[in-house]
Structures are given as structure tokens and as C-alpha cells.
Specification:
Bound molecules: nicotinamide-adenine-dinucleotide, SN-glycerol-3-phosphate
Mean pLDDT: 97
Shape: globular
Largest sheet: 8 strands, mixed
Strand content: 5-15%
Order of helices and strands: EHEHEHEHEHEHEHEHHHHHHHHH
């Protein structure tokens, strides 16, 4: 299938960057904005001042707040926060075009159910051909045309190939994968681990501690990926190690910077009250704990992050508990 029309749902930083990718690749590009006045503002100013200030949006990107109109496309890229996917699917269902691809570009797990995003889409939007786009990709770097590689995953190989062709251009390079579950789990859990890394950096626990967290975090994500039917090779790829390293090493990450502020002693409520950007790891932390427990997967770092974020536990107590766990073989 030739993909000419690409619509992006959500005009946050990532949705806006994805619209730039599609337009630069020569696609007929529509960016769906929930609020009509914001669509008018962005259209008039040709920039998204709230989420990607200073980045010019070409005329080739059409802004709309009319969902049925936005759904007139061969590929529909979902770029709102993960917790809103179910609501989007329900709103889109009556208007969903026959064979359109749904590309999940959010990174998270549903808090109530512990479901992955493709599982929500399969139940709420059964006619959609579901794929996911994930990997190390700060929106601002993509918007500035800095070199970026991502994974596009789906079980329909021909569709994955079509999406790669439709979105690749210049410095933006997608790789294909058939491991939808692996790519999704890796992309969601890295946000929780980035909060953990931010906390240890904010508390001054040092680079050794962060490297240990990244490595042991990778071990626990691997267990969850395998339990969800994904493959361990995916963890060595862009959506796995690539995104984990990026997000756990840069204060440009909203998740890592939120963790840093927590590590410096601020409360979650204070931090969230001063931000308008999403840090998906906050909701994913409890979702991943629910999911891991239901599958009998041990995830001590995610459990610790969840207790600090949502149950009032202290960082020093959680670090002490992690360090005093029984000694074991690294590959167990
Ligand atoms: N920013 C990045 O660099 C980046 C890169 C890759 C993936 N992502 C993922 O993309 C998703 C969106 O992140 P972002 O960075 O664009 O967010 P953002 O913080 O820049 O923007 C917030 C977005 O949430 C939307 N929103 C707020 N309340 C909503 C509601 N009630 N219903 C529906 N939408 C609502 C806003 O319209 C806006 O699109 C997240 O899952 C994130 O993990 C972000
Ligand atoms: O800013 P973050 O922490 O949401 O990370 C953004 C992207 O997921 C990085 O790949």
C-alpha cells in the first residue's frame, strides 16, 4: 500500500516533531490538535509555541481539530499520552478508514489494566492495522533535523516496510521490526528506569549507581519482554538499549529530569504542578508493577520507583533495600 496521507494525533512536542518528519518526507501531512483555538494559533504562527517553540512549521502541515477529517489518511500516528489511547480509539472507531495503519508513537502502559497500547487498540479499534514507532528520539532533536534512528514494529511486514518508506528522509532513519510487544514494553519501561536514574543523580549517588541501574534495569525489562512474548534481541536494539541509554543519560528527558528533582528532595505533587509536559514513567510505574506481578516477573527497580512515586517511600530506604537484596549470579 502506498502511504501518501499521514495524520498525527496530538500536537505536543512529539506529535509536532512527527508532523515535521512526515512533511519532510513529502507526505500530505495533517496534525490533529484537540482544541480548535490552538489549531488556529499554530496555523497562524506556523509554530507550536507551547511545546516546540522556535521551530518553524512548513505550510505543508495542515492543522485541524476535526477528528473525522484528521482520520482521512493511510497512516494515523498516535502521539498523545498513553493513558488517553483508549479514549482516542473510542472516538475514532466510527470514523476509522478501512485499511488505515495505526502507528502507536506514545510510550506507556495503561494504568488501570496493565495493558500494552497495541492490546488496547486491538480491542477498541479492531479494524486498525496496528504498529508502533519507538526508539531514542527527543522531539527537539528530530525537529532540528539531527540524525535519529527509530524502530517501526508490526506483525505485517509489508506494512512496516511501507511505513519505513513513507517516513524516512534525510537524517530520520527507521528500522523495521516484527516484535511489537518487545518494542512496546521496552519503550514504556525505560521511562520508569529514567526516573530511577534521575533520582540517583539528583541525590548525588554517582555515575556508578546510574550505570548499575541502567544495566540491572535492562535485565528486568528483558524478563518482562520475554514474559509478554517479545524477543531478547529487541532489548539490544533502538527501542531497547538505544532508548534506555538516551533517556537515562540526558536531562533533556522529562522522565529523567523529574527523577532528578525528586532526588533533590522535591515532592511529586510540587514537580507536576509546575510542568505541562508529560512524564509517562509516573503512570507507567504503577502499570508496570501491576503487569509484572500478574505475570510473576520480578522487577525490583520498577517496584522501588513505584513506591517512591505513589506510596510515600523514601529514596534512601529503597536504595538500601536494593543493595541488600540476596547476592546472585548476574545472568539469573
Ligand atoms: N517528546 C518526546 O521527545 C517524545 C519522543 C518519543 C515519544 N514520546 C511520547 O509521545 C507521547 C506524547 O508525548 P509528548 O512529548 O508529545 O507530550 P507533551 O508533554 O509535549 O504534550 C502533551 C500532549 O498531551 C496532550 N493531552 C493533554 N491532555 C490530554 C487529554 N486529556 N487527552 C488527550 N491528549 C491530552 C496534549 O494535547 C499534548 O499533545 C508520550 O507517550 C511520550 O512518551 C515523546
Ligand atoms: O522526555 P522523555 O523522558 O519523555 O523521553 C522522550 C523520548 O521517549 C526519548 O526517546
Amino acid at each position: 500500500m502506498s502511504i501518501e496521507r499521514v495524520s498525527i494525533i496530538g500536537a505536543g512536542a512529539w506529535g509536532t516533531a512527527l508532523a515535521l518528519i512526515a512533511a519532510r518526507a513529502g507526505r500530505q501531512t495533517t496534525l490533529f490538535v484537540r482544541r480548535a483555538e490552538l489549531a488556529t494559533d499554530i496555523s497562524a504562527q506556523r509554530q507550536n509555541a507551547d511545546y516546540l517553540p522556535g521551530i518553524a512549521l512548513p505550510e505543508a502541515i495542515t492543522l485541524t481539530s476535526d477528528l473525522p477529517h484528521a482520520l482521512q489518511a493511510e497512516a494515523i500516528l498516535y502521539a498523545q499520552p498513553a493513558q488517553h489511547l483508549r479514549g482516542f480509539c473510542r472516538a475514532a472507531r466510527p470514523h476509522w478508514p478501512g485499511h488505515a495503519a495505526l502507528v502507536l508513537c506514545a510510550k506507556g502502559i495503561e494504568q488501570q489494566s496493565g495493558l500494552l497500547l497495541h492490546e488496547i487498540a486491538a480491542s477498541e479499534l479492531p479494524s486498525a492495522r496496528v504498529t508502533a514507532l519507538s526508539g531514542p528520539s527527543f522531539a527537539i532533536d528530530v525537529a532540528r533535523s539531527l540524525p535519529t534512528a527509530v524502530a517501526i514494529a508490526g506483525t505485517d511486514g509489508a506494512l512496516v516496510d511501507d511505513l519505513m518508506l513513507a517516513l524516512s528522509h534525510g537524517a530520520f532513519r527507521p528500522y523495521g521490526s516484527d516484535d511489537l510487544a518487545g518494542v512496546e514494553v521496552a519503550g514504556a519501561v525505560k521511562n520508569v528506569l529514567a526516573i530511577a536514574c534521575g533520582m540517583v543523580m539528583g541525590a548525588g549517588l554517582g555515575d556508578n549507581a546510574r550505570a548499575a541501574l541502567i544495566t540491572r534495569g535492562l535485565a528486568e525489562v528483558s524478563r518482562l519482554v520475554l514474559a509478554k512474548g517479545g524477543r531478547s534481541e529487541t532489548l539490544m536494539g533502538l527501542a531497547g538499549l538505544g532508548d534506555l541509554v538516551l533517556t537515562c543519560s540526558s536531562p533533556k528527558s522529562r522522565n529523567m529530569s523529574l527523577g532528578q528533582e525528586l532526588g533533590q528532595g522535591r515532592t511529586l505533587a510540587e514537580i507536576l504542578s509546575q510542568r505541562h509536559s508529560v512524564a509517562e514513567g509516573v503512570t507507567t510505574a504503577s502499570a508496570v508493577v501491576t503487569l509484572a506481578r500478574s505475570l510473576g516477573v520480578e522487577m525490583p527497580i520498577a517496584e522501588a520507583v513505584n513506591r517512591i512515586l505513589h506510596q510515600g517511600s523514601r529514596l534512601d530506604a529503597e536504595v538500601g533495600a536494593l543493595l541488600s537484596r540476596p547476592l546472585r549470579r548476574e545472568s539469573e
